[in-house]
Amino acid sequence: MRDARAQIIRWIDEDRDTLIDLLGNFVRAKSPNPPGDTREAARVLCDFLEQRELPYRIVASDETMPNIVGTFDCARPGRHVVFNGHMDVFPVGDSGSWTHDPWSGDIEDGRIYGRGVNDMKAGTAIIVFAYMYLHRLRDQLGGRVTLTAVSDEETFGPHGARHVIETCPEVLGDVCLSTEPTGIETVRFAEKAPNWLIFTVRTPGAHGAYTHKSENANEIAARLILDLQSLCDMTVNSPEVVIRALAGADDVIDRVASPGAAKILQKVSVNIGVVRGGAKVNMLPGTCVVEADIRVPIGVEVDDMMREAERIAARYPAVTMEIASRADPLWSDPEHEMCRLLQSNVEELAGFVPPAIVSLPGTDVRLWRERGIAAYVYGVTPHNVAMADEYIEIDELIHVLKAHTLSAFDFLSRSRQNEETMQ
Question: What is the pLDDT of residues 224-237, one digit of tens each?
Fold first, then answer.
């Protein structure tokens, strides 16, 4: 086992330039979502897999949004590791604010630049390489390894991971590993649940000079928005294992997610993302629509939050509430074997133990957690995600590849050792 682990490290160091080349080609294969066309990006990965005779197939409910699913069995029965990453990226936005061509994959000062290089083409390239190394070692391992490189993640759409999980039983393993950009200082075992509510205010409206004739829909919306902030004060009853995991992690949470993140990690948060009201300045608005993104932490029942939101809306007879999207906060055991393996391997590689924490944004691994499958996220530092000059540090790229490959190898090796012990 020690020889194989050392071999993994040697392979990764020897393949450094090959990984960088693949990632550069992957970045240059444009895949902004919207519109979500990932065919060019998928071709880059498929060519790599085919050249190395690695098993895979394409699964798609929309031909412009292919998903790559690869699976192989090891030498004997055992546990099943699933890797997950996505190929679609955020749109570029104003390309004039970039100092590097957003689709260039430029390398400068140990960094690779480009739209989506961080979120998450670097991570998806990493899992392809991890899949390759474990395939080489399959005769030494027990169990199964599955690769999922999906589309349609940036919009939480139906054509990516959700379609794959619903149609491909081989992707439902014992544990799922994701390389979304978390920052190398933490492992993520959970994420806050996004719940999207739409509040519509309707009044008769009037000429702007006749303010006595109708209530102002925008003003009602303004009061409603302020009242919704009280959701942030809901009582949170976190399980003891979650409390233990997060104890003492405030400093690192604030460091990787910006100051103040630790304070809201285990609180309900309310973001008023959209407000649409009024037609012109001299008309009293009769309609205003408010869209709220309410993130619910572990320890708060979503039904309780919904009832409280309905109670707040009921203060205003002109307001109706619609649930656009509902999700429960799902989490995996922060003391699970795979989480411990990731922490142990990071300590061996980098000299520190990354605490297991909760993620503020959502990822596709929530879909595995919905099915009771443990899922953990460990990735590069999220530099300029969805901003100009998005980049990754090459040294972190190599580090994260080593951490995931070693952890998956250890997990599958232990399933083999357990079998031999039983014999």
Answer: 999 999 999 999 99
